[in-house]
TrEMBL record:
This is DMT family transporter. It comes from the Bacteria. It is found in: Endomembrane system. It holds the Pfam family EamA. Keywords: Membrane, Transmembrane, Transmembrane helix.
């Protein structure tokens, strides 16, 4: 069952770019962002009620609001970039977020970063730069070709702060209610600009509507599936399989939208996946060793969201 949940979560994450691109055929980015949160809390809230018979909505904690603002930034800029760019572009968010978290750990939390960690960061950066460049002439990049990578970088910045908030909140809340609270306030924040920004980007049809519902389901449930999978599957396998979402994302972008997949995209993807795996494996191994010691509070592992 653990492998089923792991593969299900990985496939869900790989479809995000395709689903956002489909939803953008009818809806603007602000509406898509709001729907991802609003539909997500319906799915997550329903699950929590069925499993635990109650939901804890928290709001009087600063890290909930930091996490909500970060996640709004993450989804909004990601949706804008996917709407105007290729559907595989969001593969840049994960490695940029990873490098940012590494820098936060070193310079904010004053944690020691191993040489392997810095080497992994270099690989992630190299992969991101290679994908962002994609063989384009410098004149094209300067004239606007670098806009979508910049938007994905802003998205990753927001995502990094959401992960930091999760590390702080998980000390006091379970993962289900923590995400419900953050996503609830995300939907409340994202409803504010809708009267001015919401509009139909194209003819309304069932495809974009179903894509919006699917995005909400992924937002609400995929993190829970992944956390449950970690209890049943070894972490090295979980890291490798979950990072294969990058490869599936590229595959779906070609199959559904015929997005051009160049050798720069493939090589850059391979490099950044290698960096992510290299960075995560030793970190989790040490965290798991601490968990196995009696009377020691488990370490806070880096979380992965849709």
């Amino acid at each position: 069952m653990g492998y089923v949940l792991l593969i299900l979560a990985t496939l869900c994450w790989s479809f995000v770019g395709t689903l956002v691109k489909t939803a953008a055929m009818s809806f603007d980015s602000a509406t898509i962002t709001f729907a991802r949160f609003a539909v997500g809390i319906v799915f997550l809230g329903g699950f929590l009620l069925i499993k635990y018979r109650r939901i804890q909505l928290r709001f009087g904690m600063k890290w909930i609001w930091i996490g909500a603002l970060g996640k709004c930034c993450n989804y909004f800029f990601e949706n804008v970039a996917l709407s105007i760019g290729y559907s595989y572009g969001n593969i840049l968010v994960g490695p940029i977020q990873t490098v940012l978290l590494l820098l936060f750990s070193a310079f904010w939390f004053k944690e020691r970063v191993s040489p392997r960690g810095w080497a992994a960061a270099v690989l992630c950066i190299a992969g991101v730069l290679l994908i962002s460049w994609n063989g384009l002439p410098l004149s094209v990049l300067l004239s606007g070709g670098a806009l979508t990578p910049l938007l994905f970088a802003l998205s990753a910045f927001g995502s990094a702060f959401h992960v930091l908030s999760s590390k702080m909140l998980i000390r006091e809340m379970d993962a289900g209610n923590m995400n419900f609270s953050v996503f609830f306030w995300c939907s409340a924040l994202m409803v504010l600009p809708l009267p001015w920004q919401s509009h139909l980007a194209g003819a309304l049809s069932w495809g974009p509507v179903l894509a919006m519902i699917a995005l909400g389901a992924i937002t609400g449930l995929s993190f829970y599936w992944f956390s449950q999978a970690l209890k049943l599957v070894s972490f090295p396998i979980a890291v490798i399989v979950s990072n294969c979402a990058v490869l599936f994302t590229i595959l779906w972008s070609y199959l559904f939208f015929r997005d051009p997949i160049t050798v720069f995209i493939l090589l850059g993807s391979a490099i950044l996946v290698g960096g992510l795996v290299l960075l995560n494996l030793p970190v989790r191994t040490r965290a798991r060793a601490r968990q196995e010691q009696p009377n020691v509070r488990p370490g806070l592992a880096r979380s992965r969201e849709a």
